[in-house]
Amino acid sequence: MLIFRSEEHIEKWCKAWRLPRGADLSVEQAWKLADSWYRDRLSPDWRRRTVDEAHELFRSLGLTSEFWRLA
Amino acid sequence: MPDDFKNRVRVRLYQMFLELGRCPNMAEIAGALQCGVSEVAAAFHELAAAHMIVLQEGNGEVLMANPLSAVPTPFVVETPADAGFRSWFGNCIWDALGVIAMLQRDGRVLTSCGCCGESMTVRVRKGEATANPPGVVHFAIPAKRWWDDIVFN
């Protein structure tokens, strides 16, 4: 997952790597995703999310397209 | 292997990574937990099999304790400390922001545009993130394929 100066730069990068365009997030969206995903990682009680729990987390952030389906 | 021991290794790995500013090796964790290196190695393998960490090929040491990277990357995370900053490497922009989230404090990510290499800084302050210059985050790989090649991803 990379950050780019603009959508045009993403497009250039995708062409250079011969990859289809993935999913774009605003910096604020990416931060909220990182915060939700990693906030509790240092807890001794942390465990991996189930697929359903991960989907619920993505859904809560508005990430509902097929791109965000884990299974 | 008991889940309790595996979890003790996981927690100590993260604690030492943050304290040292670098990834501890198996011997250092074994010393801290007063157990054998082979026990830590076995725990690493089980944690990696469960996609909790990623190991280096060959030596079995940690490559990624997500969101932290054991090797230098273009995602330097800095948080204010008594004397300047503390810093670590994140695996990607998501993980770099994840280090700040995990620490639950303000911080910044020093990085660059994935296309042109222009320097970019993402600051997190009081729970809000801003990039300078402004930018867009791109996820190239669909979620169901993230672990197909976690290093590229």
Can you offer a commentary on this structure?
The complex is a heterodimer of chains A (71) and B (153). With 71 residues, chain A is mainly alpha-helical. Chain A has a domain at 25-39 and 48-71. In chain A, 46% of the residues lie in helices and 10% in strands. Chain A contains three helices and two strands, in the order E-H-E-H-H. The radius of gyration of chain A is 14 Å and the shape is elongated. Chain B is an alpha+beta fold and 153 residues long. In chain B, helix 2 crosses helix 3 (37-49). The two termini of chain B are 30 Å apart. In chain B, a hairpin with a 2-residue loop joins strand 7 (119-125) and strand 8 (128-132). Chain B is built from four helices and nine strands. The chains are: A mainly alpha (71), B alpha+beta (153). At the A-B interface, strand 1, helix 1, strand 2 and helix 2 of A face helix 1, helix 4, strand 7, strand 8 and strand 9 of B.
In short:
Helices cover 46% and strands 10% of the residues of chain A. Chain A is mainly α and 71 residues long. The chains are: A mainly alpha (71), B alpha+beta (153).
Annotation keywords:
heterodimer; A: 71 residues; B: 153 residues; alpha+beta
